[in-house]
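Appendix B. One record, verbatim.
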Amino acid sequence: MRVGLFVTCLIDTMRPEIGFSALKLLEDAGYEVDVPPAQTCCGQPAYNSGERPLARDLAEKTLREFEQYDYVVVPSGSCGGMVRAHYGDLFRDDPELMARYGKLRERVYELTDFLVNVAKVELPEGEFHGPVTYHDSCSGLRELGVKAQPRALLAQRGVTVQEMKDCEHCCGFGGTFAVKYGAISTAIADEKCMNVQASGAGAVVLGDLGCMLNIEGRLRRTGDSSTRVLHIAQVLAGDV
């Protein structure tokens, strides 16, 4: 089975090591993994900003690059959610594109969902020390149903999860929301950071780099230099 790894533009630009962790997990699960070199953005920032022509161009590009694979795996709930939940809106006036997209849509998975429900992996116990708390990113949770999957995989690795208050609440990133409504975003991020710290865990783990950068940035700007902010792929792959 061939998997196309949709790395996401944020991971490619800001934290490529997360992409390598995702690749390692998929290959260890027995899949042949390709990373199409011309891939760029899924189109979500343009879509959220009302720039439908640009969003559609990017959606068509993504469709062309990934429709050949048995599965498409995305280490990001927001990008995976964009493809699974919103490409149909962009293609609705084009029957040919909708037909092609319909064949691809059900083969697109967020990373942990794929590892649990398709690959059915059994990960060995790892060497990660100390409890973590988990932030449920909005798109992964609400558009893709990602909730139990990362926790099940962390349990396989022997990682203890200490749930924070309001773990399902937004971190304040919201794509372009953080740019358009900076003050509101900051207030939401502050509440999230307080809940992370109050959990008593030394690290917060999550599955979306946008949330990761937002939470980590706010923690550091408010003087917290010790709480680790980790992508689920890094923890599962033993790369931290």
